């Protein structure tokens, strides 16, 4: 049984086996969580991401998929990069958002990670409504068959923390 914990704060300050990065498909850094992880983690993360782009992911990491790199200077062993979907009013992409959580946990299992920190994937510039993102994230993690013992959702602000808290209750 996986324990789920919610904290409001900075995901780059978490001490866990793996930190999940809400990456863009380029894997080369960006804004929000992605930029913060690359800045605090240092150049080793970007170096491994460039190698992934040069080998397996020449066209970028597909939406809903996940891949791991070193965590560089972060207090973690790995960063698991996953590409969330952009929210759409006209197309249901919730299966892609759920896939981000499932795939990330699958990568964590392959690595032997027992503690994983997730952000609220796709809720920033990808505009996924926070309450729905919380529902999908929590339902997916609860249903996942994983060896991960503890999942911590690290919510950046009070709005996100409240949405996840309301959903967890």
Per CATH, the architecture is 3-Layer(aba) Sandwich
Strand order in the sheet with the most strands: 1-6-5-2-4-3
Distance between the termini: 17 Å
Number of domains: 1
Strand content: 15-25%
Multimeric status of the protein: single chain
H-E string = EEHHEEHEHEH
Overall pLDDT: 97
The largest pleated sheet is described as: 6 strands, mixed
Tell me the number of helical segments per DSSP (H or I, 4 or more residues long): 5
Basic shape: globular
What is the CATH superfamily classification? Leucine Aminopeptidase, subunit E, domain 1
**How would you classify the helix and strand content by structural class?**
alpha/beta
Radius of gyration: 14 Å
Which bin fits the share of residues in helices?
25-40%
- Return the CATH class: Alpha Beta
Description:
By secondary structure, this protein is of the alpha/beta class. It has a single domain, classed as Leucine Aminopeptidase, subunit E, domain 1, CATH 3.40.220.10. It is built from 5 helices and 6 strands. Strands 1-6-5-2-4-3 form a 6-stranded mixed beta sheet, sandwiched between helices. The longest helix is centred in the middle third of the chain and has 18 residues, at 94-111. The two termini are 17 Å apart. InterPro entries: Macro_dom, Macro_dom-like. It holds the Pfam family Macro. Residues 1-169 form the Macro domain.
């Amino acid at each position: 049984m996986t324990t789920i914990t919610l904290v409001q704060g900075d995901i780059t300050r978490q001490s866990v086996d793996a930190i999940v990065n809400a990456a863009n498909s380029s894997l080369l850094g960006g804004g929000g969580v992605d930029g913060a992880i690359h800045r605090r983690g240092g150049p080793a993360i970007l170096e491994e991401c460039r190698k992934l782009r040069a080998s397996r992911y020449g066209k970028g990491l597909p939406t809903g998929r996940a891949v791991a790199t070193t965590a560089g200077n972060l207090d973690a062993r790995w960063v698991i990069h996953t590409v969330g979907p952009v929210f759409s009013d006209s197309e249901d992409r919730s299966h892609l958002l759920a896939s981000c959580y499932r795939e990330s946990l699958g990568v964590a299992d392959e690595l032997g990670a027992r503690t994983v920190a997730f952000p609220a994937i796709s809720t920033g510039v990808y505009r996924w409504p926070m309450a729905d993102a919380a529902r999908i994230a929590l339902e997916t993690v609860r249903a996942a068959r994983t060896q991960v013992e503890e999942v911590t959702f690290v919510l950046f602000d009070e709005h996100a923390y409240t949405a996840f808290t309301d959903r967890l209750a």
